[in-house]
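Response to reviewer comment R2.3. The reviewers asked that we include at least one raw input/output pair. We reproduce the pair for Oligosaccharide flippase family protein here without editing.
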Amino acid sequence: MLGKIKNIGKEKNLSSLMANVSVAFLGLLSFMLLTRQLSKELFGEWVLFITLATFVDLLRFGLTRTSSVRLLSGADNQKQKNILGSTFRINLKLLGILTVLCWGAHVALLIFNLEINNGYRLFLFYYPFLAFSNLSWNNAMSLFQAEQNFKRMMVVRISNVGLFCLFLLLNQWWLHLGLVEIIWVNIAVNAVSGIWCTLKSWDGFFYLRHAKKTIQKELINFGKYSMGTLISSSLLKSSDTFIIGMSPILGSAGIAMYAIPLKLTDLLGIPLHSFAMTAYPRMSKKSIEGDLSGVKKIFYSYVGIITLLFFPVAMVSFVFAEYLVLFLGGNEYLDSLPLLTLIFRVFTVYIMLLPIDRFTGVLLDSINRPKLNLYKVLVMTSANIILNVLAVFVFQSLVAVAVGTVLFTLMGIFLGFYFLKKEIQIQSKQIVLESVLFLKNLKTHLG
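Raw output as returned:
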């Protein structure tokens, strides 16, 4: 088993892993600085604004990212210009539509004097500026991914996240600027990365004249099939924040408090994402070769070993939850420490379940059953939204929102195994057997 872990390590692209870890570290540092610079209400508004922006960005570029990477891989120079120009043109049109929708909704709120969380107002007004500033570097990511140029991807991502982090450090010690100014700086640092990508001709702006309708149509036709899973999985992560933001009682302060244990949980998901990205091509290869026993063996091994690795992490997180929450949130959240500690301890249960849930989805995709994975995610998303509405508007409890996360994850695991048992006769007890076997032979592996 240790040999398998070593193989996993060898198969990972070191530059890709460094990019993820570096950006995650700077993101964590930015998060900690913001909790100390903004009041609970203002920080909650920031979290709602940035969560909405991230959600919409994912949908914007999700339409073309997968299909453009597919077409760019192995394309000659002229074909590359056609694809990049076509992708940029599609994203420009999407930007125009989103700008009309956002500013139109903002004007409607002003005309009818509707009451809404200020985080939503900030999104409707400022998002078009942010969307324009991050258009170029996001479009360039398709080229980097197709070329497997993870080093360049890392440098571009760190250029905007790092500059924003540097600004927040200056703001902490010297500037003391407010939320609106922080949003404008975030827009500006994204623009810096975007301009750099444009000048280097990585984004497709200079190739707009090479765009072709046939390629645009191909990009959209391929990309639209992944949108269902993308929207559902995005809502699965974001609906907690959106629904808490609609509550007149929990509101922005509730978002701010919930964001702290959620951030800690997200950090623990970073290595799991790397493992999943490694497992997917291995299981897919075995599936294409018709080796279903090999597919199942990889699945059992990954789930068993990673759950074992997550177990001590979850236990340590449970025991030291209070210190971790205080470290991330700072003294501003001292009065809410018992509540946030309880929420994070509920999330430690979710952490234990996460590898099994994630890998049932990966396995469904690997055996060419993406439709079943879509059904699984749709059911989980629907359950999450219903549970969130009950937790926020009936129980008015952030702990209930966290409990809902555990419940919909259990539902996803049950549904994933149901589909897998029908398709390839997966046996859940084999995961336990693989884990026990690993523990029994641990001394041999380490020796």
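Residues 251-288 form the longest helix (38 residues). The chain has two domains: 14-227, 247-446. Further pairs are available on request from the corresponding author.
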